[in-house]
Amino acid sequence: MTTKAIRGTYLTFTGDPFRSSLEEVMKVESDGIILIEGEKIKDLGPAEDMLKKLPEGTEVTEYKDSVIMAGFIDSHVHYPQTQIIGAYGEQLIEWLNNYTFIAEQQFANKDHASRVAEVFLREQLRAGTTSVATFCTVYPGSVDAFFEASERLNMRNIAGKVMMDRNAPEALCDTAKMSYDDSKALIEKWHNKGRQMYAVTPRFAPTSTPEQLEAAGALWNEHKGTFMQTHVSENVNEVAWVKDLYPEHEGYLDVYDKFGLCGDRALFGHGIHLTEKELSRLSETGGTITHCPTSNFFLGSGFLNVHNAKKNERPVRVGLATDLGAGTSFSILQTLNETYKAAQLNGNALSAGHAFYMATRGTAESMCLDDKIGHLAPGMEADIVVLDLKSTPAIDFRMSFAKDFEEQLFILMTLGDDRATRATYVAGDVVYDRGAEAVTGKNAVFA
Asked: Would you state the pLDDT for residue 445?
């Protein structure tokens, strides 16, 4: 089994800073070494100690002016929407009808799906994201295309066939039985095949009949260890629409709850307009809100109050997500920038430490994957991102005035983007290497 080592400043978290002090759980080693054996982290610690313990002949790659951490995790994204990123105008329902549903019909062609999946995953790695939970389309071939690309890269990813049998173009509608049968076959084919994982994926309550949601609940219950992903309370008009479609239910979340779609590994996109009662129910069942601030701002949906969702009296799991393509960037750094702004609008300060926890261990915990990914520790899968602290001339200049490491992190999350990714490791292998020279700085001219 091959061994390799990474040296530099590393950051990791041992717990949740929203529930205990940041100082207690945020661990920074200014000159550390991470030893990788095969696909996992074997050991880590201060360089002066680790150098004595490295197996003879171990290659050590050193990253200067950088910070090393667990790879970013995107808990809610739509790979078929890669081709419509930055589509102009309107709010959620109109945006779906005018852009998303038109684009998704092209995924009946598996060659097209494969091409988009390859671009999508390569861009994720270039942004330092090593795991995603993505919606595919109603076509099973779009799921195969995604998992085939993901398997080649050996990424730990989650995906599922969209289940949708009403309120969508006929070409994108299946039936309750078809969605059950197709999804079951895909689970048997892909779930836990290598690092691939499956999510039962009803798009959202308005595009599923009660019969389809019942089938989704039965399917999820029959396949323990799979995920469930959908959308909830993203837009006020959507919430009203659900009330009209499901008048017998207490609220939006109750629709999913009554069909057996709440619980651990249930990933609910957005959750901006959930009531206190619904948040309490999510806390009871273990469901996760996937926080998508760039998308929420882009579509004018609102802004989630993360601090309220995670309050200690009834903590709800919260993961971080780009929600591309209503989200406008693959970059989790850009997403953290918007996460900070959403917190400000809710009257809360979001420290850099809390933000990077959310981007790594926090999202892994929310998805019940923190035994595998999301932090740096012996036995964890070696999915790692190296971030350049001097990736652009402006950032380089601003960093020269940073008073401490936390301020450096804050600058990184507010000014940084995919250009900051120095290298990305998946299961111990380098899958993206920008090179030592900063992307923008090498061409900069100063008078």
From this structure: 37
